[in-house]
Amino acid sequence: MGGTGTPPAWPFPLAAAEKLTAQIQYHVFVYPHETKNSHVLVRAKPEQPLQNFTVCLQSYTDLTRPYSLFSYATKAQDNEILLFKPKPGEYRFYVGGKFVTFRVPQSIVASEHICASWESATGIVGFWFNGKPWPRKGLQRGYTVGAEAAIVLGQEQDAFGGGFDIQQSFTGDLSAVYMWGMGISTSEVMEAMYNRPSKAPIFGWRNFPYKIVAWLRELIWA
User: Fold this and answer.
1) Could you give the domains of the chain?
2) Which end of the chain is more exposed for a tag (fewer CB within 10 A), N or C?
3) How far, in Å, CA of 153 to CA of 170, rounded?
């Protein structure tokens, strides 16, 4: 990571603020409070329905209750894609409203990087925790993920673009969010961990269109 010294930090007002990140070296969204509406809305989406995809992100939190990290909802299905942590040491990965569970080591307040991939033709789900692949599982073989989506970070959508529950909201740091319309390898997962992906994503952390809604902090430095 580039840059030295103390990074700049500035709070966003309650009114939504909209930005497009350029080629930055370090960028993190900080969710300092438990709220019913604070979230990041991703201003990008697939151009067509998905038969394959991968989502990666990094989080840092001391929450022990359930919370949502990545929520991709369509008008037909609010849990079209969802990365959800119901309790310490467990992740749920949803596709089309159904999920598989991955159990991971319980850390003492440490940053966690996860990636999840899905392939429609086989239903195979891949999952990586801090760069290490977990045993594959099966989910929703033959399903197609809709392209007209609302993509939200830090809240779970129970309705298209809303229906948030404060008891499922995220608090902590969220960064390194990527989505590809394909599967990726373990070496490519490692590249994403260090924000140097070789494959072009649908959206990625070094060129990330987004809208901040309600009260968050954003840290950026080069």
Assistant:
1) 36-221 (2.60.120.200)
2) N
3) 9
